[in-house]
Amino acid sequence: MNVNIVLFDDFETMDALGPAQIFGKVPEHFYLNYLSVNGGIVNSSQGVKIWTELLIPQEVEDILVIPGGRGAKKLLCLEKKTLETLKAAAQEADICMMVGNGSSVLAQTGLLYRRRIADYPDDENWKRMFTAEIIREKDMRWLSDGKYYSTDSTMSGIDMSLGIISDLVDLEVAVCAAKAIGYEWDQEMA
């Protein structure tokens, strides 16, 4: 399966690379693609530079990952083209994973209208403005509502990735992926 990680300037590094680390531990099942609306080098909030391919929504298959971060707020206010492209890509994907405030980005497209998302810490006024008519579930590390998966934090993105591997491939494969990075996965918290 393809794991399409969509990046934008000032994304939160671990929101994207945490899931990449997990899916990357089982390359016989998952292939990682790093994409952006314009292609080329994208910078994380922490200064990590990643080369990305051009995001072509019609070519998106399987899993789409949308990280959060400071850049997510910029997308919501200034990047209409990016939001339209992300919406089209999310519609093509079988599973859409949103880490932290990455769910606010997809919320702006209208795809999460009246859906449930894991609530994430952020300014309450900001959340009200960008997640109206979306049910924010408190005290949920991650959850799914149909094909839309969301987390409350960066570290929950790792748990969500393991849960998806468990569902799509096998529980033992997910456990092995967690052990391979030295992560103690509490399946009860998932």
Overview of the molecule:
The chain contains seven helices and ten strands. A hairpin with a 2-residue loop joins strand 9 (142-145) and strand 10. It has helices at residues 13-24, 70-78, 80-92, 102-107, 124-130, 154-168, 171-180, and strands at 2-6, 31-36, 40-43, 49-54, 63-66, 95-98, 116-118, 135-137, 142-145, 148-151. The protein is globular. The chain is an alpha/beta fold and 190 residues long. It has an eight-stranded mixed β-sheet with strand order 3-4-2-1-5-6-10-9, with helices on both faces.
What topology emerges from the helices and strands here?
Blueprint: E1 2-6, H1 13-24, E2 31-36, E3 40-43, E4 49-54, E5 63-66, H2 70-78, H3 80-92, E6 95-98, H4 102-107, E7 116-118, H5 124-130, E8 135-137, E9 142-145, E10 148-151, H6 154-168, H7 171-180
Parallel strand pairs: 1-2, 1-5, 2-4, 5-6, 6-10, 7-8
Antiparallel strand pairs: 3-4, 9-10
Helix pairs in contact: 1-6, 6-7
